[in-house]
Amino acid sequence: MTDSRPEWAPAAIDLDQPSSARVWDYFLGGSHNFEVDRRVAEQAIAFKPDMPDLARQVRMFLQRAVRTAAAAGIDQYIDIGAGVPTMGPVHEIARETVPHARVVYVDHDPVAVAHGQALLADDPDAVFIQADARSPRAILDHPEVHALIDLDRPVAVVLCSLLHFVSADDDPAALVATLRAAMAPGSHLIVQHASHDGQSGDIIKMLQMWNANSPEPMYWRTHDEIENLLAGFTILDPGVVPLPLWRPEAEDRAGAAENPERYASYAAVGTKPGATAD
Ligand SMILES: C[S@@+](CC[C@H](N)C(=O)[O-])C[C@H]1O[C@@H](n2cnc3c(N)ncnc32)[C@H](O)[C@@H]1O
């Protein structure tokens, strides 16, 4: 059954096709999703009941990593594949430490973009642009990126739950390398990436179900493949580790560290080596 189109939904979107942004929003407890998204999300939950917890764990990692970047003095952020920017998004977290942090959110999903733009309408230091991560040069050259971000100074680039939507043919390593080349020394790269390492049948079935039902297939990678995506960055301790093990804070630790593989993904933060300008 197709939803009736809510007021906030852009006219161009197809209400019969699920999108990862809106399925993720459903996992996070948001309201920017449609019947088709909820159906696919519930199918995923049937295979892997802790999918909503996974989405929260990714958000908590993102927040820990952004706090790390902010503590290093980074006051500008580009969050690519940002999704619907609710539930403790980058600008709110960074500004706890760096009050005037500037943030560019990027997504290709029209609902994430429409909602993000509405949410940030009164914020002169944060924008949400629609762009495809597979064209990183277009993002770096975007006028709104130029207006807010000074690439001659350190920037934190967030790629959380994004690179596993980029196929080998679309070359995620080249995507990251293009970003790295534009980032000043001292910049941070924040990555979370799904992995099938050590996973059993149910989660593999969930991946197959997702790929059969979604126009955005996922490409899971091994630990070493994910580490290779961070080539040219100095990887901060504790390295490329299962998601909940990246510098957990007390409240994140409960339960998660008991079986860190259960989230089927790795997290890492790299810094670009070299002399910083400031
Ligand atoms: C699973 S959600 C993750 C959202 C957020 N980064 C987080 O970690 O909570 C993946 C997001 O990546 C976006 N995405 C996937 N492929 C993309 C692409 N090629 N270009 C831009 N965004 C993309 C989706 O629209 C979706 O919002």
Automatic annotation (TrEMBL):
Q: Which Gene3D superfamilies match?
A: Vaccinia Virus protein VP39 (3.40.50.150)
Annotated InterPro entries: SAM-dependent_MTases_sf, SAM_dep_MeTrfase_SAV2177_type
Q: Which region ranges are annotated with the description Disordered?
A: 252-278
Spell out the Basic and acidic residues composition-biased ranges.
252-261
What is the protein's given name? S-adenosyl methyltransferase
